[in-house]
């Protein structure tokens, strides 16, 4: 535990209220951090890692989630460099660094020499939000999935993940863990899809949510059906369902180079609010 009034230390349950005040400064961008805090109470054994806080004059000014994902929270470039100084003295345990570009960029510049070459760098990913009804007619065929859909849903999730990340989630014996994650989202009512002729043609999931926002991930269209507008009307349906039953604002981030996806989200009514960056190992 730090004894100085300025510095970085791990947070715990006693810091939860102050941490929630911090993420509440931008509750949509920080939805992952709030979700993790509320579901773990900042207990390291439940986090599977740590959350670091940076303090100035005794007050929490920035934080950093350090688990499978390393996520800076309300971090200025100076805060990010302070977190990087702590991280550089440890072996890398994270598989991804992700968050607002203005924090990820200085963090990576400071820690990259110690953590080695990443598999991929994705800079300037648009972070998008919608807090109103979609601008296009939702696809009435999109619905919540159930456990009876797993035979069609799970292969689509694997295909999406492999296409997006470049590595199968089943690699290295990870199929049981990934299947459990997909089933967990289905059980929460956070998995949505459209089926036609015994095939899944569109899907998306909520990755995390709070009372304010829900972050969508895993948007995928059957490659044989791309270019038909399934993503646009499908995402309009997801926005409607999520805003009705999960949270009033829907967010996601998308690769800058993915012009078809960006156009689909724009048609639905998503608007860019920040730029994210992702470093993948």
From TrEMBL:
Cited InterPro entries: Acyl_CoA_acyltransferase (IPR016181), DUF4081 (IPR025289), GNAT_dom (IPR000182), UCP21603_acetyltransf (IPR016794)
Sequence ranges assigned to domain N-acetyltransferase in this UniProt record: 140-281
Annotated keywords: Acyltransferase, Transferase
Organism field: Nocardioides bruguierae
Tree of life domain: Bacteria
UniProt GO molecular function: acyltransferase activity, transferring groups other than amino-acyl groups
Enzyme Commission number: 2.3.1.-
PANTHER family tied to this protein: GCN5-RELATED N-ACETYLTRANSFERASE, N-ACETYLTRANSFERASE
Protein name: GNAT family N-acetyltransferase
């Amino acid at each position: 535990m730090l004894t100085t009034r300025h510095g970085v230390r791990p947070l715990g349950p006693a810091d939860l209220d102050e941490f929630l005040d911090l993420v509440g400064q931008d509750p949509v961008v920080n939805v992952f951090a709030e979700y993790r805090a509320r579901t773990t109470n900042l207990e390291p054994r439940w986090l599977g890692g740590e959350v670091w806080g940076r303090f100035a004059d005794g007050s929490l000014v920035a934080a950093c989630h350090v688990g499978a994902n390393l996520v800076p929270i309300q971090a200025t470039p100076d805060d990010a460099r302070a977190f990087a100084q702590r991280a550089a003295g440890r072996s890398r345990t994270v598989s991804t660094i992700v968050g607002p570009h203005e924090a990820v960029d200085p963090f990576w510049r400071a820690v990259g020499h110690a953590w080695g070459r990443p598999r991929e760098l994705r800079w300037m990913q648009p972070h998008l939000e919608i807090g109103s009804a979609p601008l296009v007619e939702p696809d009435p065929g999109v619905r919540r999935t159930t456990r009876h859909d797993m035979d069609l849903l799970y292969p689509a999730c694997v295909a999406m993940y492999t296409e997006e990340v470049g590595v199968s989630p089943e690699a290295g014996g990870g199929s049981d863990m990934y299947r459990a994650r997909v089933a967990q989202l289905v059980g929460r009512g956070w998995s949505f899809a459209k089926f036609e002729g015994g095939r899944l043609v569109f899907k998306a999931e909520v990755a995390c949510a709070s009372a304010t926002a829900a972050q969508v991930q895993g948007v995928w269209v059957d490659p044989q059906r791309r270019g038909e507008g399934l993503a646009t009307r499908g995402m309009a349906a997801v926005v409607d369902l999520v805003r009705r039953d999960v949270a009033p604002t829907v967010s996601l981030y998308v690769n800058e180079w993915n012009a078809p996806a960006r156009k689909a989200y724009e048609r639905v009514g998503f608007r860019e609010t920040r730029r994210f960056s992702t470093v993948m190992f």
